Every structure is written in structure tokens, then in C-alpha cells.
């Protein structure tokens, strides 16, 4: 069995049209419950075994040669059959970019959907080309443009040669708060709370709470904290020399103790332990 691979790149420092946030290979995919979805576009494919995806109260299989493209913040869960003797092996890519929506709109791919490989398209060939390029360089950020070009090529080939089935519509509830979510993506390090968010949305705090619960199953403030934790996890890995106090201030927490307590409550481990596990 091949070894696990993972590359994480900094999104905020790279305003490229398309940009990979993370890419990797899992020899034994973990179980994930994401009721609030993932903040970026997410490609997941099976290379061995079989996985199961839960979306919109339905369960879909993900066998070898099949992949799924998930739009940001699409609630989902995926897992393997633990009774199966064959491990569920996957490749994955999470990505965003300054022109991600125009590009996917032009390709008519700006929605969640399942895809299958064909005689003219191997998902694995494209993903391994990106992984090999990253493995050849000691600093992945130096070849961000090349990886961006390979990602674009993959999306074009996916559109042209991939066999799409089970197109999944974007949740209407998310469309109602898309602009607020995009704003929070920019201002999460600032000292803001429910009042500031509701003022930006021009709705009452009660109505804003309802909108977020309808879409993500969590409150607006909980969603804000999630964004801060996500960025903190990235910094913990990419900037090992940065103190917890500086990271807390950088992502919007009011003090290091609040940061550590919140991180442990949500992730099950302290920030220091998380950093050590990813060194």
C-alpha cells in the first residue's frame, strides 16, 4: 500500500484564477461528517475499495473510477463500510481562486455532481501529475502557477470527457446568504459578532440565525468561529515558528486561552498537539 500524501498551500497569499488549497492521497480514507460543508470546492475520487456519500438525505456509492465535485458549504458526509476487507483509498483536491466562479460557470460545472472515468479520461492520471509536480519541489508555493494550470486542465478534461451523472442542485438556502458568507471569508479576523453580521446582511439577528440554521445547521457566530479555526489550522502547519498567542490574534480570537479552549472543544485536541501531529 502506498504512503499517505498531503500538500497544503496558502490560499490568502495566492490570488490566482485557480488555486489548490490541499491535495493528497489517503490509503485509508477517514469518516467525515460535515453538516456545514467544506469552505472550498472539493474533489474526491475512489482509487480502490468503495466509499459512501450522504447528500441531501440520500446515500450514493463511490466505487473505483468514480468521483464527486462538491461546491462550497454543501452539507455532506462520507465513510467506508468498515466490514469490508478492502480499504477505501482516495485522491482528493480542495480548491478555490480569484476566478473560480466565472471559470466553473463558463464550463457549466458550478454545481455538485458525480463523474465517472471514461476511455479518454483517467482521474488518477491528472491528480498524480499534480502530486508528482509538488513532490519534485521543496517549496510547493514556487510552482503554484504550474499546479493551477494542471488543475484547470483537469477541470476542462472532466467537462469534456468525464461522464457526469447524479447532478445535485445547489441548495437554495445557501444562495440567500452567499454574499454574507463571502464577506465573512474576508473579515473573520476582525472583532465582529452577530450584531455586525446581521447589520451587513440587513436582516434581524433572529432572521439571520434562521437562515444559517436552514443552510448549515449552525448559528452565524458558530460559522464565524469555524472560519477562524480553519485558518488557525492552516497557520499551525505552515508557520511552525509562530506562537499560539500570535496565531490567536491573527485569526480573530480574543486571547490565547479562548483560542486554545475553543480549538480543543471543536477539534478534540489542543492547537499544539494538532501542530505536532502534522510536522
Instruction: State the helicity in percent bands.
Output: 40-55%
- Specify the number of helices: 10
Major sheet description: 7 strands, antiparallel
- How much of the sequence lies in strands comes to 15-25%
In which order are the strands of the major sheet placed? 1-2-9-4-7-10-11
Radius of gyration: 19 Å
* Shape field: globular
Q: Distance between termini?
A: 22 Å
Helix and strand content put the structural class at alpha+beta
Mean pLDDT: 87
Low-pLDDT residue spans: none
Order of helices and strands: EEEEEEEEEHEHHEHHHHHHH
Number-wise, the strands total: 11
Question: How is this structure best described in words?
Answer:
- This protein is of the alpha+beta class and 279 residues long.
- The protein is 43% helix and 22% strand.
- The protein has 10 helices and 11 strands.
- The chain has helices spanning 100-106, 123-135, 144-161, 172-187, 194-201, 205-216, 220-238, 244-251, 256-267, 271-277, and strands at 5-8, 19-26, 32-34, 41-48, 51-55, 58-62, 66-70, 76-80, 89-96, 112-116, 163-168.
- The strands form 2 sheets. A 7-stranded antiparallel sheet has the order 1-2-9-4-7-10-11, with helices on one face. The chain has a 4-stranded antiparallel sheet with strand order 3-8-5-6, with no helix packed on it.
- Strand 5 (51-55) and strand 6 (58-62) form a beta hairpin.
- Helix 7 packs across helix 10 (271-277) and helix 8 crosses helix 9 (256-267).
Layout: helices, strands, pairs:
Blueprint: E1 5-8, E2 19-26, E3 32-34, E4 41-48, E5 51-55, E6 58-62, E7 66-70, E8 76-80, E9 89-96, H1 100-106, E10 112-116, H2 123-135, H3 144-161, E11 163-168, H4 172-187, H5 194-201, H6 205-216, H7 220-238, H8 244-251, H9 256-267, H10 271-277
Antiparallel strand pairs: 1-2, 2-9, 3-8, 4-7, 4-9, 5-6, 5-8, 7-10, 10-11
